[in-house]
Write a structure and sequence with these properties.
7-stranded mixed sheet; 60% helix; 518 residues; mainly alpha; 21 helices
Length: 518
């Protein structure tokens, strides 16, 4: 090899090494950040419950014999089932997938910037834009390892847009289809991408070719959607998941939803800066592929915000918004990287603005409230302790009801009625409240619980010291936990067999207004 060819290869090799190093450093930083904010969420255990029942041969159901789609993440639930089938803990499986998705997104952000920034003295720019939420704000890393599909879904949405190229349309179609199977909102990508493919061709005076390309892209998603809807109809008897009815999504909760978006902006002010940068990338990106990717991101993000506003948002701290946050972060990073090539000072000014925005934030509440991720994560340890205790002290056919329907149901293995109705077909016919609301809008009434034969009703679990006097006149079973703590349970459907069981085990139960006889 001649000296001139070696000299030509040297910068390319250095650039490759720099890209690898940037991605590796970003990945390590992402792992470090996640390790400081790791949580689990109770909702993840609803999917684990479905997965465990399926592997056990009971069907893809929450309670054996009750065929209701109480999850909204089919692909994620199947990942959990695959882990259970090979003897793995579904928490480990889903947490690994979520954190890996987060690492990939942060690594992609680093690579995008380093590819575009020629002068290494602008390396501070990389750290600054990374600070734009990917590492500083706890929401992304916390949700990545929460057992939920949030960041995996976000990664699939980004990937579907990155590969909208004529030679990779099949890959984009596959990723978009996987996004749809992971979350119903993935259908937004199935709308935006064909439209952009057609518009791209139409601007080049080839609208017929664009229609043909859009149709080819749509083949795979259309087959996936059709198969999924047919499965829903045949298996669950409904085209929509039960969660749609339980959360009153057939109503419009615009007031609560718009307030939710406003709270997100005030708590995460850099999101506004990133949105402006993404718009600039869509209008003035350095390449046509960058502009089209940015338009895709803005299209999906905009439609998603409309959906969130209509649904009223979510009561978990901005869980809905973090899943689409990468759709702003990556186009913004690409635009700042391009700007740094030609005008380093304005690029550094933008980076400084992002750093300042990331140091701000005014977390507020409205009348619908939002539960912090720390609070939600704290429920898991409590729920798992309760579930394991119930499995030990109650007969296996005891029917219980609770609002903490993930951990308690998964760890107890008991038949459970979710009081929020996610897995109860009854809520399909329940009228929803007309007031604006956020999250769960319907709650299974007492009459239905008694009709179902629920024996113990926990509501949201209440734990108190054992041995205390209780003034309620209703029959109550207090279940002993560790450290002299007792879990309250309303005894709403009394049977001689169950009464005999709790009366004969005073080491496990403390009873109130329950007649144990002579």
């Amino acid at each position: 090899m001649s000296s001139s060819s070696r000299e030509a290869e040297s910068p390319a090799r250095r650039r490759t090494l720099l890209l690898v190093a940037a991605g590796a450093v970003a990945a390590l930083l992402a792992l470090w950040r996640w390790s400081a904010v790791r949580i689990l969420l109770d909702d993840a255990f609803i999917s684990y419950r479905y997965a465990a029942n399926w592997v056990a041969g009971k069907g893809l159901v929450y309670t054996e014999g009750v065929y209701v789609e109480g999850y909204t993440n089919l692909l994620w639930t199947l990942f959990a089932a695959a882990g259970i089938a090979v003897g793995a803990d579904p928490v480990v499986v889903t947490r690994t997938l979520g954190v890996a998705s987060y690492v990939v997104l942060v690594g992609a952000l680093a690579v995008i910037l380093v590819r575009k920034v020629d002068r290494l003295e602008l390396g501070a720019l990389l750290a600054a834009v990374l600070a734009g939420g990917a590492l500083v704000r706890p929401g992304l890393p916390a949700l990545a390892g929460s057992g939920m599909e949030t960041l995996f879904f976000g990664m699939l949405l980004v990937g579907a847009g990155l590969w909208v190229r004529r030679d990779c349309l099949w890959l984009s179609a596959v990723l978009a289809s996987l996004a749809y199977l992971t979350r119903p909102e993935g259908a937004l990508a199935l709308v935006v991408i064909p439209l952009l493919i057609w518009l791209r061709a139409a601007r080049g005076s080839a609208p017929r070719q664009g229609l043909a390309e859009a149709a080819r892209w749509t083949l795979v998603p259309a087959a996936v959607v059709a198969a999924h809807l047919l499965f829903r109809l045949r298996y669950y008897g409904a085209l929509l998941p039960n969660t749609y009815y339980a959360k009153g999504a057939d109503l419009s909760h615009w007031e609560a939803g718009l307030s939710y978006l406003g709270l997100f902006v005030t708590a995460i002010p850099e999101s506004v800066v990133l949105l402006v940068l993404a718009v600039l990338a869509a209008l003035r990106g350095a390449s046509s592929s960058q502009r089209w990717f940015s338009r895709y991101c803005l299209g999906v993000f905009g439609l998603y915000c409309v959906h969130v506003a209509k649904a009223g948002g979510d009561f978990m701290e901005y869980r809905f918004m973090w899943s689409v946050y990468p759709l702003l972060l990556l186009p913004a990073a690409a635009f700042v990287g391009d700007l740094a090539k030609q005008r380093p000072r304005p690029a550094l000014a933008v980076a400084a603005l992002l750093v300042i925005a990331c140091s701000l934030g005014w977390p507020r509440q409205d009348r619908w409230t939002i539960q912090s991720l720390d609070h939600m994560g704290g429920l898991v340890d409590e729920g798992r302790e309760i579930g394991r205790t119930l499995k030990r002290v109650l007969p296996p056919d005891t029917l219980i009801a609770t609002t903490l329907a993930g951990t308690i149901a998964y760890d107890s293995g008991l038949p459970v009625v979710d009081e929020w109705g996610l897995s109860e077909p009854y809520v399909r016919e329940m009228p929803a409240p007309q007031d604006a609301y956020r999250g769960h809008t319907k709650r299974v009434p007492d009459a239905h619980l008694r009709e179902r034969g629920v024996q113990l009703r926990f509501e949201h679990p209440v734990i108190r010291a054992c041995g205390r006097r209780y003034l309620q006149r209703r029959p109550i079973v207090f279940i002993r936990l560790a450290d002299n703590r007792c879990l309250r349970a309303w005894y709403i459907t009394q049977t001689p067999e169950f009464t005999a069981h709790v009366c004969s085990h005073p080491e496990d139960f403390e009873l109130h207004r329950i007649d144990c006889g002579p």
